[in-house]
Design brief:
Elements: H1 3-14, H2 18-21, H3 23-34, E1 40-46, H4 54-58, E2 61-68, H5 71-80, E3 85-88, E4 101-106, H6 116-126, E5 127-138, H7 144-151, H8 165-172, E6 179-191, H9 194-203, H10 220-230, E7 239-251
Helix pairs in contact: 7-10
Length: 252
């Protein structure tokens, strides 16, 4: 299955209920906004989703353009902001002219890129000289308890394979940025049970897994095995769902 169309299908499914599950997305967006410019003439929101951070970006930009790989997400965005421009597109082929953007904002969309260096080349292409990128991505350490619990059940891949923070930094800095700053944040959500945890992952479209072998159906027996394995990670707050988020600020 082609990677990008498969990711688009996953987020199309998640569009209807995205907002009610997007707690981490709101938290990470706030961090990106805190390191972004105070003002930008033209702002580009890559992976804009259902206009999740549009209102915040509009307070700092004269012009806003939202791009997302999932048409269903854009349809939700249009409902709230019919006056703005929304384009169906992806990181590795941005439908934007060269040297036209002052600020690229991208909250938790970069981990769905197949070729990170190509995506960063696209960001560099569309930015004006002196333009700013504030982007983040999920890296190794994310879903660690969930992954370890699945490993106790079978040896198949049940989550996305996350790059290391060092690996991401190396690919990003392959381009001649004027400056590149990185910081790593750790967040943990807690859930009362495995089912609620998995619903939350699915609710934000983060349950797509690229693999060559079929993991099989989630039978009652397999779910029980997963629940049993996950119990050893339970804390007073519940079952943990970890997120390791690499924040990146680039200047062209």
């Amino acid at each position: 299955m082609n990677f990008q169309p498969a990711v688009a299908r996953q987020f199309n499914k998640a569009a209807k209920h995205y907002h009610q599950h997007a707690d981490i997305q709101r938290l990470t967006a706030s961090k990106l906004l805190s390191i972004g410019p105070d003002y930008a003439s033209n702002a580009l929101d890559v992976g804009c989703g259902p206009a999740s951070t549009t209102a915040d970006i509009l307070t700092r930009a004269d012009n806003y353009l939202g791009v997302d790989i999932a048409q269903a997400m854009l349809s939700k965005a249009v409902e709230d902001y019919p006056q703005l421009t929304w384009l169906n597109g992806e990181w590795e082929a941005l439908p934007i002219a060269d040297n036209t953007v002052d600020w690229i904002f991208a909250n938790l969309s970069m981990q769905w890129v197949h070729d990170l260096e190509r995506a960063m080349s696209e960001a560099y292409r569309v930015l004006k000289p002196g333009g700013v990128v504030t982007v983040n991505t999920v890296v190794e350490g994310t879903f660690s308890s969930f992954i370890k619990s699945w490993n106790a059940v079978d040896d198949l891949q049940h989550t996305q394979a996350f790059q290391t923070a060092d690996g991401v930094q190396k690919e990003v800095t392959a381009l001649n940025w004027q400056s590149a700053d990185f910081s790593l944040d750790q967040h943990t959500q807690h859930f009362s049970n495995v089912r609620d945890l998995m619903v939350s992952i699915k609710g934000v479209g983060a349950n797509y897994v690229r693999r060559t072998e079929h993991a099989g159906l989630m039978t009652h027996r397999r779910l029980q095995q997963l629940e049993s394995a996950f119990e050893r990670y339970r804390t007073m707050k519940g079952l943990p769902l970890e997120w390791s988020i690499l924040n990146i600020k680039l200047i062209k």
